[in-house]
Amino acid sequence: DHRDLHSFPTRRSSDLGTSEIYTDNMSLTEAGHSTKAVEEKRVRVDIAAVKESIKRREIIVRWIDLKSQLC
Q1: Which end is more exposed in the chain, N or C (fewer Cβ atoms within 10 Å of the end residue's Cβ)?
Q2: CB within 8 A of 13, min separation 6: which ones?
Q3: What DSSP character marks residue 62?
Q4: How far is Cα 22 from Cα 69, in angstroms, rounded to an integer?
Q5: pTM above 0.90, yes or no
């Protein structure tokens, strides 16, 4: 589910460094690194923002198994 992507704060990587984002959502991880378009328009806008942040090296999105999460 990509609904909360718009809540990421927008900051320059030069201000804060690179943030690592861990998610158990494989489709989010794949969408952030794929050139394939997302079907839903609203989600497409959010994924575009994630991709731009990855490109600027502001964030790194990594998949993690649900069982490996601390909380």
Answers
A1: C
A2: 56, 57, 58
A3: E
A4: 9
A5: no
